[in-house]
Amino acid sequence: MSNKKEEEVRKIIADWNPLGEKSSTIKDLSGYKYEAMDIMSSFKIVPGLSLKDAIKSVIEGAFNIILDESELNTISEKISKILSK
After folding, report:
1. pLDDT, position 11
2. Is residue 23 very low, low, confident or very high in pLDDT (cuts 50, 70, 90)?
3. Which of 16, 23, 25, 74 has a CA positioned 20 to 30 A from the CA of residue 68?
């Protein structure tokens, strides 16, 4: 997948900012760069994994948080549009 798509996905996640105010306390956050890469990779290589499940798994696993289902649906739709280009 292209670096442009990766940057667009990273921006969507950063704008969403699932960590909220806690994001300022994490030293190596890098604007969700690594989470974007992990989501894109997981979605591409894990058979049968939905994009929504990839996002949920990566974000919840990385930060030990529980995501809001409606926010997750919205973000999944936005990222899906990017990846389908």
Report:
1. 95
2. confident
3. 25
Per the document, the length of the chain is 85
Give the CATH number, domain containing residue 32: 1.10.340
**Reported pTM:** 0.89
Q: What are phi and psi of 46, to 5 degrees?
A: -95, 110
Number of domains in the chain: 1
Question: Which residues 6+ apart lie within 8 Å of 41 measured at CB?
Answer: none
Amino acid identity of residue 63, one-letter, is F
Structural domain that includes position 69: 3-83
Amino acid at 80: S
